[in-house]
Amino acid sequence: MSFAIFSDSSCNLPKAQLEEFQVQIISSSYEREGKLITCPPYPEDFDGHEYYNFLRNKGVVKTSLIPAAQMEDAFRPVLAAGEDVLYITLSSGISGTVASGLQAAQALMEEFPQRQVRVLDSMGAGFGIGLLLGRASDDRKAGLNLDQTYASLERDRDNLCEFFTVDDLMFLRRTGRLSGVTATLGTMLQLKPLLRGDETGHITVFNKVRGRKRAVETLGELYRKRVCSPETQRVYISHGDCPEDAEQLARMVQEIAPPKELIVCLHEPLTGAHVGPGMLALFFLGKGR
User: Are residues 254 and 127 part of one domain?
Assistant: First the structure.
């Protein structure tokens, strides 16, 4: 039985890949200066330079989860046409989107008792979701059914590596990721945090290094140590309006172990509001998370 693949605009995938993977997008939204703004479905339609400058200048962005009713409206036509649904969501460790998805799934499976709606907690964000979407598309093309694809994605999720750094420790303090003392000390000493998505889908600081250059180099070193069979996988880099650093990291990845495909892109606005300008992230499949 065929199935449709859904996610939301926080998956960060460019238009070409969304079309290649045949992923349907549910639009997220955020509030800025009293206005509710719908996230663009494609990062190409996002003015990241303007957005991250707004955050640099102490602008405030408030984010919210997608309501279950909006998900139901997106899934219902697919179910009515006789297809099942796979929805890959933002991590439950940083968002309530999974709970909304499960609520929508329960309601729709009562409405369509012959159909399935499976909700996969990506335990990730941004391209962490996008990477799993690509794997889901590959599995579907290979003839796997919904349950087989879901099981395959759970295995992939256990090896999803999401490593990133940020330029402004005070921004992390404002979003509750670091204590005020740690943030102030880090700024004074030019310490840059290295963060990851952990085994529970939360964001954790696992190291600090001195200076931005060293932080970027450390991301490359993590790729060297942790990547598995890069020639068979897609690797992703996203950035909060720091394209030069992103290109430097991309060159390192290509020199260390060229992947089947390497995508470099601005980081989308929804989770970008929480990690801030200057964020640089690397996503790949490795040996554990």
Answer: no
